[in-house]
Amino acid sequence: MASKPSIPKGTRDFSPSEVAKRQYIIQIIKSNFEKFGFQPIETPSFENSDTLMGKYGEEGDRLIFKILNSGDYLAKADATHLESKDSTKLTSSISEKALRYDLTVPFARYVVQHQNEIEFPFKRYQIQPVWRADRPQKGRFREFFQCDADVVGSKSLWQEVELVQLYDTVFTDLGLSGVIIKINNRKILSGIAEVIGASDKLIDFTVALDKLDKIGEDGVKKEMIEKGISLEAIVKVQPLFNFTGTISEKIDKLSDLLSTSADGMKGVEELRFICDNVLKLGLESAVLDLDVTLARGLNYYTGAIFEVAPPKSVAMGSIGGGGRYDDLTGIFGLKNMSGVGISFGLDRIYLVVEELNLFPETVTATTKALFINYGDKEAFYALQAIQKLRAAGIKVELYPENAKVVKQFQHADKRGIPFAVIIGEQEMESNVYSLKNLKTGEQISVDFEKLKSSL
């Protein structure tokens, strides 16, 4: 007996209603991307390993899905590494490609390869799946979609202002009020590390600090100690664990704290410009918040960093994030090409919108009417009407077989189809249609124009 098929952990099948809801979210994001002037591109689902590896930090590299070389992948394997079972060193000889981890690094590669065809500043959006070898849990999957918008070729901080507005516009259109757009700046984190004497541990410091909301203050301190950050430095950073006040007050506190760090003060100036202008322009449904513990674990951010939290009533991780990267394309040979971008987490946004019951009923609207099949002659007559109704943008269909009428009505009921169109010899002779409301049971005889308007 054949075993029951399954799918890998961290992946999902989507039903018709789920796909309809996902497409609803994608369409809102896409339409706003285009409204803000972003153009679509697509890149391959897998890249050469050396394009991806080393771009996301040690933790990110571990989560990249490697693809075994075609054919006898062990033929070129290093015998010493194979015998010693050194998987880290062995991987490079048996895997030359990997599934993309995000859309930003492939975008940087795209910009470098197509730099002579691109008009800068270049505003691109991309809506495609990515893969991470993460531990699956609620809201965290191994295969998921990202919806990215990036501007490359401009250092203007007005881009950051507009990206905050883009977040606000999308979540407003989705009916999601109370979304929190957290902002920080990597220069501020560098400045803090400098002030507390831990500049050589910047990455370890920021990765640990970024986990404050997940593992708490004690967990962050424990990780910092394990990474070699001194107790004296941790004492100095203590005020960051309870950093309160308005955005303006927080910026003033940072200005005092970082007065001896040129890099830190540059970050303060950038934050002040972005936050002041966003608040002056106003947000419709989102809330802007300065979070000094926000670090985001990606090594390539150099300026403003963003993370979006759902409304407080929903227990869910971040539903978006991004930031400024001054020289991401430099890793591929194109220097001094600054960029900034944000991403929407489609799968988590879906869960949040579903939990808050914000999907309009029309999103999952199915076929409007099922034409009952009484035989070939009646089916042909029905298809003539169906052809015209579809041309008018109305979703209708014919039951494919001349099955028992009860079975056809049951099919309509299970599909949630609200109307049935009945055509027998009498209807054909009179050139009319019997339209039955399957919820109320009411049935009326109509000509084609009335049928069309009723549907």
Automatic annotation (TrEMBL):
Its EC number is 6.1.1.21. GO terms for cellular component: cytoplasm. GO terms for molecular function: ATP binding; histidine-tRNA ligase activity. Residues 1-400 form the Aminoacyl-transfer RNA synthetases class-II family profile domain. It catalyses: tRNA(His) + L-histidine + ATP = L-histidyl-tRNA(His) + AMP + diphosphate + H(+). It comes from the Bacteria. One of its GO terms (biological process) is histidyl-tRNA aminoacylation. HAMAP family: His_tRNA_synth. This is Histidine--tRNA ligase.
